[in-house]
Amino acid sequence: MRLANILVLLFLFCSNEVLGQKVEVIKFPELQEIINNKDASVKVINFWATWCKPCIEELPYFEDVHATYGEQGIEVVLVSMDFVEDLDTKVKLFVEKKQLQSTLYFLDETDYNKIIDKIDTSWSGAIPATLIVDNRKNKKDFYERQFKKGELSQIIKTLIN
User: Residue 30: which of 90, 120, 109 has the closest Cα?
Assistant: First the structure.
């Protein structure tokens, strides 16, 4: 009986790792803090949604960067732009199904037009979109497009060399 209790506790403790990461709900000021925080030398911040086919197609590339370069100071942050009513029914289920391991946020805002220029003035608001922040060089690069296989890794390789 005691072994069963220990196994249940172990499962509950590790279930987040097995099923993927928790999705933290944030507002725009918190996102700004994440973007400007200098904890990681390079941050790769991807804006995506479960209803966006190109976003879903490129997510494995971000997960690969997280797995390959995470210990080298590269932080991958996935920011869901889904509708708030889809958080529990779509976003969290998607994250569990895909077992995403990057840092996950759900941006809880109703008027994205007020914030897109604050992220990057060239952003039309279309997704997928990615902001790469290199704190070592005080540099930000913005990509409003879908990455193809190998492109994101190539950009990261140039940053760490």
Answer: 109
Which DSSP helix (H) or strand (E) runs through 45?
Answer: strand 42-48
Cβ-contact 95, 104 below 8 angstroms: yes
What's the gap between Cα 31 and its chain centre? 11
Q: What's the farthest any 2 CA atoms get from each other in the chain?
A: 61
pLDDT tens per residue across span 12-60: 344 434 445 799 999 999 999 999 988 778 999 999 999 999 999 999 9
Q: What are the start-end ranges of the H helices in the chain?
A: 2-19, 28-36, 53-69, 92-98, 116-119, 151-160
- Tell me the CB-side half-sphere exposure of residue 103, using CA atoms within 13 A: 15
Q: What SS3 class is residue 132?
A: strand
CA–CA distance, 65 with 60 (Å, rounded to integer)? 9
What CATH number matches the domain at 23-160, 3.40.30.10, 3.40.50.300, 1.10.510.10, 3.30.390.30?
3.40.30.10
The pTM of the full predicted model, rounded to 2 decimals, is 0.85
Q: Are 75 and 34 in contact (CB under 8 A)?
A: no
